[in-house]
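We were asked to recover a plausible sequence for a given structure. The inputs and outputs are reproduced exactly as logged, with field labels preserved.

PROBLEM: sequence recovery
POSITIONS: 306
GIVEN STRUCTURE:
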């Protein structure tokens, strides 16, 4: 079942004096996010990710189109209450502490008393800012603020998490922690929809991907279907190659390259892999590595960027 169902969603911003100039940010996009999945939302700067996310949260009104969330057509107070949200640039009142920020978020979601105190503590611990829970926001680093805001999104145990660039501003350890947190939320049955520019994070985390470009969806679907999985080429690295073998490979039309004292033969078919390996074994060369290369998300992203 689609937990988020976006249909022909569009947004044109009106700007300037008398709102005469307009910016078409999202041009009628359609995509779904299934319940229990981790979905990555990709696209170059200015492609409309934050605008779309703001419409999902009801922070700005769509110019046209509709969104259904938890089976309810937006705007819906009931659906909104089931969503935890991390904004792109969390604004936190400078004198507020992470504990106060998270407690406020919990209170808005209906938590009170001991449960509120307990859940606030747990959330701050999970995002790694408990040690700075009582420090004013103006004295926190960008990454610490990001963690505190993430704790605020998690505190009420929402069924759906919508995160706008959750890894931005975090150090490598912090990024890994957020990745682990996303996985553990998904294991607990939650649905996660997050935007990012870090393709490797999407590759390692996501089941589904939506790629935007200039306000339009250029790719969407299951990541394995998108990547295909077929081997594009294989690099065979050899050592102790006799002059005879080198010559034979050349004669057969292969183009071996010297690299760091080894010989690398790049081939594109299974038959060629077999041929190079058979000849190398017969000539007593050492096979250092056989490395297949598959299409990566970066390949797909670059293709859609053209
Ligand atoms: N409040 C606004 N008023 C006018 N134009 C806006 C406003 N917010 C965004 N835009 C424009 O809408 C387009 C999409 O912006 P958006 O912030 O949604 O992109 P994004 O994909 O989130 O980019 P990034 O990866 O840089 O965060 C851009 O052309 C941007 O200039
Ligand atoms: Mg953005």
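RECOVERED SEQUENCE:
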């Amino acid at each position: 079942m689609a937990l988020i169902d976006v249909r022909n969603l569009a947004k044109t911003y009106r700007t300037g004096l008398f709102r005469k100039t307009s910016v078409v940010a999202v041009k009628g996009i359609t995509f779904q996010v299934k319940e229990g999945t981790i979905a990555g939302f990709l696209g170059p700067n200015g492609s409309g990710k934050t605008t779309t996310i703001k419409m999902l949260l009801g922070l700005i009104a769509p110019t046209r189109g509709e969104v259904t969330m938890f089976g309810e057509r937006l705007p819906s107070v009931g659906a909104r209450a089931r969503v935890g949200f991390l904004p792109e640039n969390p604004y936190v009142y400078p004198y507020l502490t992470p504990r106060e920020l998270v407690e406020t978020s919990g209170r808005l979601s209906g938590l009170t008393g001991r449960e509120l105190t307990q859940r606030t503590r747990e959330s701050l611990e999970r995002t790694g800012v408990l040690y700075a829970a009582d420090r004013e926001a103006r004295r926190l680093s960008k990454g610490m603020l990001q963690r505190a805001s993430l704790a605020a999104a998690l505190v009420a145990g929402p069924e759906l998490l919508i995160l706008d660039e959750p890894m931005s501003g975090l150090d490598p350890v912090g990024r890994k922690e957020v990745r682990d947190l996303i996985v553990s939320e998904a294991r607990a049955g939650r649905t996660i929809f997050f935007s990012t520019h870090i393709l490797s994070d999407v590759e390692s985390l996501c089941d589904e991907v939506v790629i935007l470009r200039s306000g339009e969806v250029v790719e969407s679907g299951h990541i394995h279907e998108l990547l295909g999985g077929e081997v594009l080429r294989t690099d065979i690295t050899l050592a102790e190659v006799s002059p005879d073998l080198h010559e034979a490979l050349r004669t057969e039309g292969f183009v071996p390259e010297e690299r760091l004292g080894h010989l690398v033969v790049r081939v594109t078919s299974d038959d060629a892999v077999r041929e190079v390996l058979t000849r190398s074994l017969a000539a007593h060369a050492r096979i250092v590595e056989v490395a297949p290369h598959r299409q990566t998300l970066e390949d797909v992203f670059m293709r859609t960027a053209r």
